Amino acid sequence: MKKLYFKVLAYSVFGGFLVFTSCKKEGFLGQTQTSNLTGETVFTDSANTVSFLAGIYANVGFSAAAGRFTYGPILSPTPNGGIDAASDEAEVSASAGSTALAFETGTINAAVVTDDAYKTCYTNIRSVNQLLKNLPKAPINNFVKTQMKAEARFLRAWYYAILLKHYGGVHLLGDSVYTYTDKIPAARNTYADCVNYILAECDAAAQDLPTVQSGVNYGRASKGACLALKSRVLLYAASPLFNGQSIGEGKTLELVGYPAYDKERWRLAVQAAAAVISTGVYSLNVDNATAPGFGFQKLFTRRVNTEYIFQLMRPTGNVDLENLWQPPTRTGKNGAFPLQGLVDAFPMSNGKSITDPTSNYNPNNPYANRDPRLDYSIIHDQTPLQIRLSSGTSPINIFVGKYNGNTTGPDAVHVGTTTGYYTNKMLDPAAVANDFMHRTDRCLPLIRYAEILLNYAEAANEYEGPTALVYSAVEAIRQRAGLNPYQLPAGLSQADMRTAIQNERRIELAFEEHRFWDVRRWKIADQTDNITTKGMEVDRDGAAVAYKQFDVRKRNFRKAMYLWPFPQSEVAKSPELIQNPGY
To answer: Where does the SusD-like N-terminal domain lie (predicted)?
Structure first.
């Protein structure tokens, strides 16, 4: 096998209706506006054509959005979590109807599931096809047209990949642009057809794109993004749910996966991840000198960095995540609350699991000497946060009782949070919700280099066992996290390495739209999601403190939930659209 180097870098700085986005100094994805300009007007004007492409970028992060799922009135819905709340990462912020709650309780069905994946993806795929059809007549030089076409083809692959992980095989439109008078076909292509199509689109787009985008083009599709999307799609395709262990039968068998197992699919996934690594242009953001694992936290505050491969650009001075995830005293609201199971997945700072009797874990001081990523990902009792409209930090009082002159307050467990935790992952420590003084220039990662290293490690371990390169990939992640020692135990079996990799994905990629899909493709969701979730109550009486776990919710999982149901409104439109098994 070709030798690979898992490079890490020290902290450094790099510089119908049609949707349009302005090109202000925050980048090509600035304030979104709508217009009823006609197709003729759009594609005979260079600025409008460029804006049309920018509009297709606008929804690339919808599936991972922390406030994706909502409840309440149709005209003014309230967020109550993202895909994290539909997994064993977090609990919805309100026990009211939403897709996330339906997944938690096992009541998800075609009538209640959100249709955002189906509609958003196909709307944008149609927009790509409109662009590709009309781009030749646009008054733009050929070099730019070539770049725009390649970007559009990547975006089409991106949206199909989102459909594929939700539903399995879906209808492939090709380059067709249908109108409301046309009979629009809905028959599903096989899972294999969809994988092959996405890979072909990525390959075609990569030929005409730079390896990375920089300057005013930062955030646009690149060759690196094409390679990284291939890595993700091929990893999923090699995984148990899709690789010969399909939940389908009869007419759905080939629609929801490959009917027969093929070990070589793992080899293809290894090669795809290795192709990204071998570009040599991506690296982990490392800084263990400022504080252990500081590079992990700092990464998510940096608008431009060498770890993001594809990202959702946000306006400068945003507080998107703070508005959802910070506690009430910082006026955050309606984001999901982390669960105790995720907290317990973080090892000690020596890299040992808290269940290891030699780890030095102390249940009476449970957050001490833990993996630095725990504090950077989870707000627990006494976590210091920036004060609103002022300088400095103050601790978040999640306890019940009295401590340091404070009593049970709005941030407390059973008051502000139903689990005893708030999310800290990707929050800027200098930003505060609804505070004009403390904001961030952060953008949001959709694919980053740490995922690629873990993709490589998983695929290589499944294909040839825990080789030195598998160790190197995982240990690069652990080293950046600030673990000491960061090395894995020598001589791990393939099964032991699989467990280690799965846990590294759980904690390294938490709240980045991975856990929900990972437990499904590994086909272990019937174990991880058929549980009673737990929270933590911290009771204080002056210096005396007690930590008590409590039950949050009985979760239920059934076989059908390995895939999403197609919305009933879509199934009702055409008998050609075959519903997924169990719905």
So the answer is: 113-235
